[in-house]
Amino acid sequence: MGLSAIGLGLCGLTAYVFYRSFFAFILLMPLGFLYPIYKKKDLKKKRLRQLTLQFKEAIQVLSSFLSAGYSLENGLFMSMRELEALYGKDAMITEEFERLAAGVRMNRPVEQLLAEFGERSGIQDVDHFAQVFGMARRSGGELVEIIRQSAGVIRDKIQVQEEIQTMTAARIFEQKIMNGIPFGMILYIDFTSPGFFDIMYGTWMGRLIMTLCLAFYMGAVMLSGKILDIEI
User: Is this model's pTM higher than 0.70 or not?
Assistant: First the structure.
């Protein structure tokens, strides 16, 4: 509800700045209701990033228990307890390891459980780990060493992602400021020089120009977002 209200507020501001028309606001309203979907994508990315970090810690914990001589079933159970202490019982990774431990107790293949975890979460690292884990078990490889190496690869990847986020944080902040500058300029001129933009709102040519300006503005916002959205 809150995100929808923000979306409608942005639509109202856009309709006022570019058209000075309540009818334009009515036309833009559907976009306001789509704003929560747009924000949910950002929230999903943050959750995936958080879950990836937790998964890296989880397989390191599992590796330590297997190195100490625990069986896979007991190692998963002990890892679940450790993750519960680290992140809480309701954390995403704790719930996923509860499913893994319950599945192993039912004699289900661990690689299948991990593959299901990867499918649910959408994290490619989990799916890749499941494939490596399955091949290691079938070939009789050293599970502890494979898990340790996989954790190292995921850790290195996450470190690169964090470095990129650190380097682009200032640019993202600048992007947000730049996104608001056109609105601020028009409102400032309209406040200090009333009637300056009347011709842009009172004629068809003016409305056409403002529509083109809005289209260019939205294109620039989307392009800047794509440029700063760096995936590894």
Answer: no
